[in-house]
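Before relying on records like the one below, remember that each one covers exactly one chain. Contacts with other chains, cofactors or solvent are not represented anywhere in the record.
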Amino acid sequence: MSALHVSNGDATDLAGTGLAERILYWRDTLHEGPVPALGPEELRRVRADFLLSEGADDRREADRMFLDRDEALAAHRDGEYVLWFEADLYDQLQIIQILDRLRALGVPAQRVTLICIGDHPGIARFGGLGELSAAQLRDLATTDAPVRLSSEALDLAARAWAAFTASAPTDLAAIAATRSVELRFLGEAFDRLGREYPSTRDGLSLTERRILAAASGGPTDAGSVFTRAAARETRPFLGDTWCFAILRRLAAGIDPLVLLEPSETYVDRHSVIHLTRAGTQALNGEVDQVALNGVDRWVGGVHLQGHHVDWRFDEGTEVLTQRPPRPGRQ
């Protein structure tokens, strides 16, 4: 049986390499929306519900996408797998989900090869495998990039997935501190994941703060906000669709942090973004966004909800803490 090649999306030209007869693209933005600790069938339903809430048009299409993906992975359990991924948070979460599934399916670790890179010769700011030609991807497979995984790597992935999907983030720091030769970008990604919790300083996630900062120079378009915010990331992971969803979230609430034109409910690259007084105060640490407007979003299995959340990211110590938040206004 030829190997099943798995990657994050069809921007990566695996078909053009001539190396991959069987290809599976693992389409899911796991750093957005609920990812609770559920079995595959229940999790498919939760993720499809989330996509529909964010504007997906067809429930049956969303259900079928997840079902076909899971069935394709399981159907190949007697063969080999080659995983083509990148170093950023988006990809690292997909990797641990896939490896956790393969471990549960009883696939021996030695039948799993991981090709995962964070840079590439000749590219000053590597953005992903989609930037590489089919020839470059084919050459990549002949370097030392492919790593045959061990059972320890699958165990680590399972622990990371359990930490990510847990209802409290108590084990995220342990994964962030992990240093693995095989899953070498996992610790870095989990450090970045922890910064998606509201800050003790202003109630903003790091992504929210970077988006506000990108809009702070005066009225600008959403496409420029996305580009500027992404440029601040060491390893960009956020697509423009999800950046625009965050802008809609920041525009909601009693005291919105941004104003959107021409519509408060629809954002595209041409939408005009205005930072409000509250948005400026949040950037200055004078307003706590959670205390001011409340929060209703998920980070993995953790549902952050209301005007007080148990878990905050402490900018001073750079760790998640259960310290109470600051007042809404200073």
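DSSP finds 13 helices and 13 strands in the chain.
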